[in-house]
Amino acid sequence: MAGMEEGSFDINDDHNHNYCASSGNVHTYLRSQLSDVTTVPQPLLCSPVPGGEPGGRGKLRSGGSKFTDSDSSSESSEVSETDSSAPSASVGGKFTLNSASKFLLNAMAVEDYRKNHWPNLENAIDLLLIQKPTDHISISYAQIYGYIYKCVCQQHSELLYNDLILKITTHLQQVSSHLQTSPPDNFIENFNLALTQYTASLQCIVPVFMYMNKFYIETKLNRDLREDLMKLFADHVAEKHVSTLMPLLIKAHSMPFQVQPSTMANVVKGLYSLRPAWAQLAPDLFSGFIPQINPPAVESQLSDYAAHDQKLQMELSMNGFSRGDQSRKRTSDDS
User: Fold this and answer.
1) How many CA atoms, within 13 angstroms, populate the side-chain half-sphere of residue 183?
2) Which of 32, 86, 219, 243 sits 20 to 30 Å CA-CA off 124?
3) What does the radius of gyration of the chain's CA atoms come to, in whole angstroms?
C-alpha cells in the first residue's frame, strides 16, 4: 500500500465520478503485487490514462457488456478490457485492469465507507431522530451532505440506503417498545409525541439525503425516500398500536376536551396519512377531522341529520356546555 501512496498508483475522480489511474507504473506494480490474488469479477472502476483520444468519451466494455455509472447516470470513459487472466495490459494507449486489481480497489472503497463515511452519518442520524421539535442541535448539514455525495459517487448508494433503513427501523422498534409501557391515560399524548418527533426528524433527514434519493431511490427503485421512511413508522409503530389507540380516540372524541383538540386532530390526521384504510375502523371519528370520509348527504335523510345534531347539542348541554345568553339573540322580523 505504501507503494501506492508514493505515486505508483494514484486514483483520481473525474467530473463524471469515475476513478482514473494517472500513473504509468500501475502495470508494473500490479504484476508484482497482485499476480497471485484470486480473480473475482467486479464492476469496472478505472478510466483510461492519458494516451487515448483527447477529450474523447466512450463506453466501458467488459466481455462485450456495457457499464455505466448507475449512481450518477453519467457515461464512463472508454476502456477496453482484454483477457482477464492477464494482470494488466496496455493496448493502443488505453489502460486496463484485471479482476484482481478491481477487487482490491472496490474493497478499499467499501472499507473507507465503513470506517469513515457511515460512522459520521450514523452519529448525525442518531441526533436527528431523538431531537424534539423545539430543540436546536448544532449539526453541519453541509458536511453530512458531503459524505452522502461521496458515497453515491463511489457507487455505495445501495449500501447507504440499506444502512439508513436498518438504522431507522431499529430506532422505531425502540419507540414502539416505549409506547407498549405507556399507561392508557397518556397513550394518545405519547403516540402524538412520537409521531410529531419523527416527522420533524424527517424534515432534516430527507433533504440531506436528497442526492441519494434522486440518483438511486427515484431512479432505480422508483420510490421516494420520505414515503419509504413514513411507511417504516406505519409498519413498526402505528400498526402495532392501532388496536389500542383507536378505542381511546373514540372515547376521547365522545367526551370533548378530555384530550387537547390539537392533539386529537394531529393523531387522527396522522393515522389517515399513514393508512387511509384505517378511517373505516371509526368513520364517525375520522369524519370530524378529515373531509369527505362519510358518503354525501342525501335529501331523504335530512330529518336524520337534524335528529343527530339535536342529540349532539343535548349531550354537550348535559356535560356542562351551555348555549350562552339567548336573551340578546336578535328576534325575527316577523315577530
Assistant:
1) 2
2) 219
3) 31
CA distance 205 to 226: 9
155, 69 contact by CB (below 8 A): yes
pLDDT for the residue numbered 101: 59
Gap between the Cα atoms of 303 and 127, Å rounded: 56
* Residue 44: strand, helix, or coil: coil
DSSP letter, residue 135: -
Q: Is the dihedral of CA 199, 201, 204, 205 positive or negative?
A: negative
Strands 11-13 and 19-21: antiparallel
Residue 249, number of CB atoms within 10 A of its CB: 22
| Residues 266/200, Cβ–Cβ less than 8 Å | no
C-alpha–C-alpha distance, residues 251 and 130, integer Å: 30
Which residue's C-alpha cell is 440518483?
A: 215
Q: Could you give the 3-state DSSP secondary structure of residue 96?
A: strand
Q: Under a CB-based contact definition with an 8 Å cutoff, are residues 79 and 61 in contact?
A: yes
Pairing mode, strands 79-80 and 60-62:
parallel
Q: What is the pLDDT of residues 145-169, one digit of tens each?
A: 999 999 999 889 999 999 999 999 9
Helix (H) or strand (E) holding 309: helix 302-318
- Strands (E) across the chain are located at 11-13, 19-21, 46-47, 60-62, 65-67, 79-80, 88-91, 94-97
Q: Terminus-to-terminus CA distance in the chain, angstroms?
A: 101
**Which pairs from 147-150 meet CB under 8 Å and 24+ separation?**
147/117, 147/120, 147/121, 148/121, 148/208, 148/209, 148/211, 148/212, 149/211, 150/117
Please give the Cα distance from 256 to 279 (Å, whole number): 20
* Residues of the chain above pLDDT 90, percent: 41
70 phi and psi, to 5 degrees?
A: -70, -25
The full DSSP string for 260-285 is -HHHHHHHHHHHHHH-GGGGGG-HHH
Cβ distance 240 to 176 under 8 Å? yes
